[in-house]
Amino acid sequence: MKSCKAITELLSESMERPLTWREALAVRMHFFMCQSCPRFQQQVQFLRKAASRYYPNEHDKNPVGHNINRGQ
Amino acid sequence: MDKNHLHEYRKVLLRYAFLHLRNAAAEDVVQETLLAALLANEGFRSESAIRTWLIGILKHKIADHYRVAERYYTSGAPTGDDNDPNEALEQLIFNAKGHWIGSPTAWNQPDHALEQGEFWIVFEWCQQNLPKQHARAFMLREMVGLETDDNCQDMGISQSACRVYLHRARLRLRECLEQRWFN
């Protein structure tokens, strides 16, 4: 049985390439026992979605008055 | 493209560029982007179409910039400054047996967050707090949208090192968003 640490590595890897059947099986087995790692998987997928939608103009409509002055 | 709006476009592009590059380099890529856009002189109907198009060009220019910079200045060696904090990071997240120390919690309506301006400020903040190499790996992969192979090549590091960076960036970003936004 792989540890959560090892499984998260595989889940991250699965964002880059299809897992081998052995790896996929290890993940599935692990998911039976673990609530945390499936969440990690969903959240990592969310990170991808968020990053691809990131758009700087969003802040213009923002009332927080956040002054972004980077790279100084 | 309406030349009267050039100033405004420049502002938007600079914001984006500043996330990824230092001041002078950011100014340069924005300049190149606007020049490329003016030369292309596409007729767009809507404001948002223009902006999306401009950001698309900018992403390529940023990727080009990294490509050149990595080749000429760093010859691909990852900087040492990222290494120690990472080891520490994994020890904070997983115990000696590799189990979560603080398990990920369920996030409430994550898609809803994408619609909120404040979320993006937190997102940016979290991204900026990644070690440089990790932020770069994540940015090239997820924001610029390079495939992993090109991504690693651009960074001048092995594929396995690159994937470790990506994984650590994800661990850290996830943790940060959970603490700062979803909690």
What does this protein look like?
The complex is a heterodimer of chains A (72) and B (183). Chain A is an all-alpha fold and 72 residues long. Chain A has helices at residues 4-13, 21-33, 36-53. Chain A is globular and about 40 Å long. Chain B is mainly α. The longest helix of chain B is centred in the N-terminal third of the chain and has 28 residues, at 47-74. Chain B starts with 5 loop residues before the first helix and ends with a helix. In chain B, 33% of the residues are buried. Chain B contains nine helices and no strands. At the A-B interface, helix 1 and helix 3 of A face helix 1, helix 2, helix 5, helix 6 and helix 7 of B.
Number of strands of chain B: 0
Radius of gyration of chain A: 18 Å
- Order of H and E elements of chain A: HHH
Structural class of chain A: mainly alpha
**Tally the helices of chain B: what do you get?**
9
Low-confidence stretches of chain A: 57-72
Global Rg of chain B: 18 Å
N→C terminal distance of chain A: 48 Å
Low-pLDDT stretches of chain B are 73-84
Largest sheet of chain B: none
Shape verdict of chain A: globular
The total strand number of chain A stands at 0
Assembly level:
heterodimer
| Tally of helical segments of chain A | 3
Give the overall pLDDT of chain B as a whole number: 80
The whole-number mean of residue pLDDT values of chain A reads: 81
Termini separation of chain B (Å)?
A: 43 Å
Our estimate of the beta-strand percent of chain B is: under 5%
Any idea what the shape of chain B is?
globular
What topology emerges from the helices and strands here?
The complex is a heterodimer of chains A (72) and B (183).
Chain A: H1 4-13, H2 21-33, H3 36-53
Chain B: H1 6-20, H2 23-40, H3 47-74, H4 83-93, H5 110-113, H6 117-128, H7 132-143, H8 148-155, H9 159-182
Helix pairs in contact in B: 1-2, 1-3, 2-3, 6-9, 7-8, 7-9, 8-9
